[in-house]
Write a structure and sequence with these properties.
Layout lengths: L6 E2 L2 E2 L4 H17 L9 E5 L4 H14 L2 E6 L12 H15 L4 E5 L5 H15 L2 E6 L5 E3 L6 E3 L9 E7 L4 E7 L4 H11 L2 H12 L3 E11 L14 H19 L6 E6 L14 H15 L5 H13 L12 E2 L2 H4 L1 H13 L5 H4 L2 H11 L21
Parallel strand pairs: 3-4, 3-6, 4-5, 6-11, 11-12, 12-13
Antiparallel strand pairs: 1-2, 7-8, 9-10
This protein binds nicotinamide-adenine-dinucleotide.
Amino acid sequence: MVIKPKIRGFICTNAHPVGCAANVQQQIAYVKNQGDLGDGPKNVLVLGCSTGYGLASRIVSGFGYGAKTLGVCFEKEPSEKKTGTAGWYNTSAFHQAASDAGLYARTLNGDAFSKECKQSVIAAIKEDLGKVDLVIYSLASPRRTDPETGEVYKSTLKPVGQAYTTKTYDTDKNLVHEVSLEPANDDEIFNTVKVMGGEDWELWMQALNDADVLADGCKTTAYTYIGKELTWPIYGHATIGKAKEDLDRAAAAIITDYASKGIHAWVSSLKALVTQASSAIPVMPLYISLIYKVMKEEGTHEGCIEQITGLFNEKLFADAPETDDVNRFRMDGKETNDATQAKIKALWDQVTQDNFHELSDYAGYHQEFLHLFGFGFDGVDYDADVSPLADWS
Ligand code: NAD
């Protein structure tokens, strides 16, 4: 099959297996180029291992530190007629590269929020690893089925407290326009916290602890985005921000609950970049196109793999790493510092339909968006007939 991108709104509904493999290989090459990263994890569980920040965490663990990685993701398998999701192909490519390098890798594809998935992971750890010494929580999902009640909760992306009108860029229509977002009601806030808050992270740590598969001193981190004034109304101070605040509560609870085992838990704040999760958030395509412009000019632009290499090296596995006042690791300083934000704000205020492509790095945004699905890589023949089938064992 010849596979060309099928873009519908903020999502691409297909993926290219060879291009996804190129994406994974580029990230592996980056990590290998860093040289010796020093001491790190040995047995890592990555929840949300197939794309974005979770995939980068798996690559850094495996190829940066030689760790065994057990991953969990929720991806669609390809058929003869239909491509799989990018995360499926990324996982297949990761397994291939790990096998070539003699690295252990195992991936379970299923609903990480379910009890069954937790039990399967525990069984896999007992079979293959004994215990894990690092748990990465990098799930991004629009819905979650509560494992106790079976109730399905859906997250909403809405402001909290008051309506908010702002600029946004419609990637489908190539249109800069104003968008008015009504404030969320209490139910919507509650549901978003149920999906993206800390409850499931805590359930994972509880299940792993009860099964005695956490090594003494095991580290765990969940990822957040904090941002600044430009994104606060729709992110930091909005429904998703409320869910992310709940991660801070969960981190503190995990530390207290497993103090006797010396479990370390942190929320890690990462920079905004194009992933399948962020492209679905109103305002983010415009904001990210502007920060890419500014940060590339400043020479501070980073993707998932650079951010996560830094997180492991400078924070998770550093001696006495610095945290912020709520015990979070901050990897977002190059984006959120006042000088950089002032430049972004100046562009934000000026941006119109007419000057958008000149003031922003939408070309860079779009290129990275295509890369998420394995498109737009040099050296990949997109006219070639390729099999959509791929697997891992
Ligand atoms: P992503 O969409 O690229 O990855 C999400 C991962 O979760 C995938 O591996 C997917 O398969 C998995 N997943 C989703 N639902 C699942 C389920 N029910 N069961 C098992 N796996 C499931 O997202 P991302 O942008 O890498 O986000 C990961 C984390 O990083 C999120 O907490 C997000 O808020 C945070 N973060 C993102 C950004 C950004 O700009 N993208 C910035 C800072 C922090």
